[in-house]
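User: Run a structure prediction on this.
Assistant: Running it now.
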Amino acid sequence: NMGLKYATQAFYNNDSTFFRLPDNMEKNFILAYIASGGKGNASLLTNFVSKGNQSTRISFQMADVGSKRLDAIMAELKPRIDSILPPDKFDVELTGSSVIFSKGTDYMLKHLFESIGLAIVLISLLRLAQFKSLGIMFISLLPNIVPLIITAGIMGYFDISLKPSTILIFTIAFGLASDQTIYFLTRYQQELNLTNFTVPKVITDTITETGVSMTHIALILFFGFGIFTASTFGGTVVLGLLLSITLFVALVFNLTLLPALVLWLDKKKVRKFVSAEDTAKHLKEFDH
C-alpha cells in the first residue's frame, strides 16, 4: 500500500496531495507505466526494487557541499525519514557515493593525525640519537610543524576542503621540511665539533655554507610541484600550489627560526652555567 501511494505521488510529478492509493483508472496507468518502464525500458523497475520485493531504493542528486555540511544534512534527514518511514516497519540505510566519500575523507583525516604524530615521534627519536640533546630535538620540530599550521590556516581562510589530494600535502611537506632541518643541524654539529668558534660564529658559517644549497633544493621542489598548477584538475592544482607555499615557508623558517632557536638554547645553557658558578662562589664567600 505504501509503495502504491508513493507511486501515485510520483505519477503526479511528486505532488504530495496525491499521496494516496490510486483509483482503478489510475492504477491501470501507473501499473502499466511501471511495467513498461515509462518508455519501453523494462529494467526500470528492477533498478529500484530488489528481485524478492523486500527492499527498494530511493535516489536523488545533490550538490557537492563538502563532508562537514554533508554530515549536518544527514543528521537532519534521519529524523525526517523516520517520521515518514517508521523504524519499526522500515529499515532505512543512507548510502551513495557522497556518503561513502565523506566517510572515506573522515577516515583519512583521522589517520592523517596518526601518521603525522607517528612521524614526529620517530623523527624526534632519530634526532635525539644523532645529536644527543633533548633541547635540539624539541627546537628542531618547530620549523617543521609551524609551516603545516600556516598551510592549514591558508586552507581554512580560503575555504579549501580536506580531500584525499589535499590531505597528502601535510605528510609530504613535513618529510621535506624535516630533511632540510636535519641537513642544517648536521652541518652545524660538524662545524661545532671541528672548530673552536663560538656558537654564533658557527651558526653564521652554517647558514653561509648550507643556505645556498638548501635554497636551490627548495626552488627545484617549488617549481617541480608548482607545475601542477597548470593542470585542469582542481585537486592537482591545489596540491601543487599549497605544497609549493609550504616548502617555501619551511625554507624560511629553517634559515631564520631554527638558527634563532639554536642561539637561544646556547644562551640558556650559558646562563645556567654562569648561575651555577656564581652560586658556588657565593657559598665559598659565605663560608669564609
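The mean pLDDT is 82.
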